[in-house]
Specification:
The chain is an all-alpha fold. It has four helices and no strands.
């Protein structure tokens, strides 16, 4: 088995898992773009490994395969950062909803006493 075949199998499995998660509604459709792009990148680098060598030489990297690791780590960093931003936004919404709920409950209690 060659590395191209291995990359193709990994990319196809990745896409199949993404599609299965979307169909079971465990993954939002918005997030599928990110993961589909990742699968496409894995497939492209597996099929055209020379592309990584050319880009590495262009950027002045003496050992081009490390470029894939650095790019992968940067992509993961961006993904974690966007997840934290989304989580912060959701926490803010939950806090606002809890405050509104408490205000409505207080208003209902006041109306019940009257």
């Amino acid at each position: 088995m060659t590395y191209r075949t291995t990359a193709l199998i990994i990319a196809v499995c990745f896409v199949a898992v993404i599609i299965a998660l979307v169909r079971r509604q465990r993954l939002n459709v918005l997030y599928t773009y990110w993961w589909t792009f990742s699968a496409a990148a894995i497939l492209a680098l597996g099929i055209f490994p020379q592309m990584l060598d050319h880009v590495g030489r262009f950027l002045g990297i003496s050992y081009p395969p490390i470029l894939a690791i650095v790019v992968g780590l940067c992509m993961l960093f961006v993904k974690v950062l966007t997840m934290d931003i989304e989580r912060t936004r959701q926490e803010k919404q939950i806090r606002i909803l809890a405050q509104r709920m408490a205000a409505y409950e207080a208003r209902l209690d006041a109306m019940a006493r009257e």
